[in-house]
Design goal:
Beta-lactamase; eight-stranded antiparallel β-sheet; disordered N terminus; single chain; globular; alpha+beta
């Protein structure tokens, strides 16, 4: 894949960003006008000049994700600058090393700023083309990959996962422990479905975000060992009972890592190869991969955690995490590195109904399916809409009630990553926002809520009211 030389130059007309082709009706209309001009020219020179002038005013097709003044899409520049000012304030207060924020409206870039440092110790400034560990922002990419295969008729959402992954056949469900501490299990009420796999209600867990005998078994099995294959991961997972009955509870889980292997089985390709061929190359996401190659290490952000006194300490989040090495395990749930610009291109494709710059990845109705509430009827607890106005689609959280969610638009869909990255897509206001930082732990400022409030107060021509 080609390297993006400069994200800023791309936004001001670099040929890496393709022009959208006009539709056939526009071409036919232009051809007809030219034909009329030619006929008039044969009879009278004067009208030719007038008609030619009319033809010359036909607008060129709009360039996707071209940088425009915020005012061109109903926003205020001074107000929008508050996003940058807030990120800079977090840097000045020692709460962030640096940040890159990027936003689009109406398919055009209105904001693309970097503040602070990519590496404090090296005094290396944050730049628009900085590479970040996006962790769980990998999940929507994996979901899109799986839905490409859905469109090809490879599966139904209601299909049992075990139909395609026999390693997960006849799973048992944890119900408690006996007096010796051994797990007591029961049979599943029904086999986990692919829909449940994609909406985190399949009964799986993560092992690192909760405590239970099942979570302990995940850790002891080394489920996310970067040195095993995706097939070996699923085989190990199949030896551990489910934490809940499928369809009974929403719990954040390794479900999307399972989806990565499902993509391999259904496509006959290695997961990373499929992503590269079907998503990254078509969308020009040339900096997105499962590791950072040596020639790009000078753009890779340092990861920071917070010390006891709140000081930023350079450290990876997880033992064994090394994104500079091409590991065997290609984690569909959290393995990718990317840039703000690459993730913007992916997100804008979703907002555009599955297409960007003439490259169609998914159909519009497939995107609609992904951002609908896909949770079981009667679900309670997280992502049920009760209390926080948020439900879950297919690998996205979805705003069902903006008042309860303290957001702005019904149908907004979003997610974030463990290293602090975040994004949201708002189909009502025609907005994408991508934020990139590399920090985790106690002391992390609320960049997501802050950026949302400051972005929306800059919209002076709202579409949703």
């Amino acid at each position: 894949m080609k390297t993006i030389v400069s994200a800023l130059s791309e936004l001001t007309g670099d040929p890496l960003v393709k022009y959208s082709m006009p539709n056939s009706a526009n071409w036919m209309r232009t051809a007809n006008l030219l034909a009329v001009a030619a006929l008039i020219a044969a009879c009278s020179p004067a009208p030719v000049q007038q008609e030619s002038a009319a033809v010359s005013t036909v607008a060129a097709p709009a360039q996707a994700l071209e940088r425009v003044a915020p005012e061109a899409v109903g926003m205020d520049s001074d107000r929008l600058d508050r996003v940058t000012q807030a990120m800079q304030a977090f840097v000045d207060e020692g709460k962030l090393s640096g940040a890159v924020t990027m936003a689009s409206r109406d398919n055009q870039i209105v904001h693309f700023e970097s503040v602070g440092y990519r590496d404090i110790e090296a005094q290396a400034p944050m730049t628009p083309d900085t590479l970040f560990r996006i962790y769980s922002m990998t999940k929507p990419v994996t979901g899109a990959a799986l839905m490409i295969l859905y469109e090809e008729g490879k599966f139904k959402l209601s299909d049992p996962v075990e139909n395609y992954l026999p390693e997960l056949k006849d799973l048992q469900v944890f119900t408690g422990t006996d007096e010796d501490g051994n797990m007591i299990t029961e049979a599943t009420g029904h086999p986990m479905t692919i829909r449940e796999l994609m909406n985190h209600t399949g009964g799986l867990s993560y092992g690192i975000f909760a405590q239970s005998p099942v979570d302990t078994a995940y850790v002891e099995a080394g489920l996310l060992d970067p040195n095993m294959t995706n097939a070996e991961f699923v085989a190990k997972l199949g030896q551990i009972p489910l934490k809940h009955q499928p369809g009974s509870r929403w719990e954040y889980s390794v479900s999307v890592d399972v989806q990565g292997y499902l993509v391999e089985v259904l496509s006959g390709q290695r997961f990373g190869e499929f992503l590269d061929e079907r998503i990254f190359q078509p969308l020009g996401m040339s900096d997105t991969d499962f590791h950072v190659p040596e020639e790009k290490l000078n753009r890779f952000a340092q990861m920071y955690v917070y010390g006891p006194e709140g000081a930023l300490i350079p450290s990876e989040m997880f033992d064994g995490a090394d994104f500079t090495v091409d590991m065997t395990f290609e984690s569909g749930g959290g393995g990718l590195v990317s840039t703000a610009n690459d993730y913007m291109r992916f997100s804008q494709m979703l907002l555009n109904g599955g297409e960007l710059d003439g490259e169609r990845i998914l159909a519009p109705l497939t995107i609609e399916l992904m951002r609908r509430d896909q949770t079981p009827t009667g679900l309670t607890g997280p992502m049920s809409g009760a209390g926080n106005g948020t439900v879950f689609g297919l690998d996205f959280a979805v705003i069902q009630d903006p008042v309860e969610a303290e957001s702005y638009s019904t149908g907004e869909y979003y997610w974030g990553g463990a290293a602090g990255t975040w994004f949201w897509i708002d189909p009502v206001e025609d907005v994408v926002f991508v934020g990139m930082i590399q920090q985790a732990g106690q002391g992390l400022p609320d960049v997501r809520s802050t950026s949302r409030r400051l972005f929306y107060q800059a919209i002076l021509d709202p579409k949703g009211v």
